[in-house]
Design goal:
This protein is of the alpha+beta class. The protein contains four helices and three strands, in the order H-E-H-H-E-H-E. Helix 2 packs across helix 3. The chain starts with a helix and ends with a strand. Bound molecules: L-tyrosinamide (TYC).
Length: about 100
């Protein structure tokens, strides 16, 4: 088409958004509550109040949503959690799944 309008529309339709991934923290019996709150604040940038609420949700329901990110960022968050936990001697685990 020569109008230019359809061309613009076609370009817009073709836009592909990157898939998003949910990152969860998992409950366990050994990681301290304070450490989980610290992880949520330092790695997931939660406020103290949100971090405490999410930590208690994980404690009661076995896992909790920490954030939704692109694949690369989600993967980085999981690695950061595992490293921080390992360095502190806690068995805390993080997982990611496609939204
Ligand atoms: N269940 C842990 C305890 O009682 C606390 C905890 C919360 C551990 C959240 C992991 O992702 C977690 N000390």
């Amino acid at each position: 088409m020569a109008t230019g309008i359809d061309f613009e529309l076609e370009e817009k339709i073709k836009v592909k958004y990157p898939k998003k991934y949910k990152v969860f923290l998992l409950n366990d019996d050994y990681t301290s509550m304070d450490f989980v709150v610290d992880v949520l604040m330092s790695i997931f940038h939660k406020s103290y109040e949100d971090a405490e609420r999410i930590m208690l949700e994980i404690h009661k329901k076995d896992r909790g949503l920490c954030g939704v990110y692109t694949h690369e960022i989600a993967e980085t968050k999981v690695v950061q959690v595992m490293k921080k936990a390992k360095d502190s001697g806690f068995p805390l685990k993080a997982t990611m799944e496609e939204e």
